[in-house]
Write a structure and sequence with these properties.
Layout lengths: L2 E8 L8 E8 L5 E4 L2 E5 L9 E3 L5 E5 L16 E4 L3 H7 L10 E4 L6 H8 L4 E2 L7 E3 L5 E4 L1
Parallel strand pairs: 2-7, 7-8
Antiparallel strand pairs: 1-2, 1-6, 2-3, 3-4, 4-5, 5-6, 9-10, 10-11
């Protein structure tokens, strides 16, 4: 699995949702990002607010690379960003800085992610939700796939 330092923001609460910076792991396909006990899968139709969703909760997230100017949050957003203590040295190199600004960051330690749990969730059979004229098919993460 490939690891990379990334910016992650929960977009379920708009531009002020919790945000993190730290190392993530990618699935073999690159469609799922694992970090801090979560598995975030790429949206089939990403928008301007979110490009991934939590496999377990359905909450939407924005994931991107680190901006070298240090302005990772949306310009309308705000709040401290949680940074994994194991990624601080790499982050400081990326943004060419010597220390973490404690007014902008809270230092935490990411939890391990149980990939087996998420693999089981994703491998549940597709569920048929409705037998009416406008039939909707949903994947096991309750994301609309198609309609007939």
């Amino acid at each position: 699995m490939k690891t990379k330092i990334m910016y992650i923001e929960n977009k379920s609460s708009g531009h002020h949702g919790p945000a993190w910076i730290g190392f993530v792991e990618f699935s073999k396909s690159g469609q799922t990002v694992y970090f801090n006990g979560k598995a975030l899968k790429k949206l089939k139709n990403p928008g301007i607010n979110a490009n991934h969703f939590d496999i377990d909760t359905g909450e939407e997230y924005w994931i991107s690379g680190i901006k070298k100017n240090g302005h990772n949050r949306h310009w309308l957003g705000g709040g401290k960003i949680m940074i994994d203590k194991n990624s601080i040295d790499d982050y400081l190199k990326l943004v060419d800085s010597k220390s973490i600004n404690e007014k902008k960051f809270t230092i935490i330690e990411f939890a391990e992610t149980d990939k087996i749990k998420f693999n089981e969730i994703e491998n549940i059979e597709v569920e048929f939700m409705d037998k009416g004229r406008h039939t909707w098919y949903w994947d096991n993460n309750k994301r609309k796939l198609s309609s007939i």
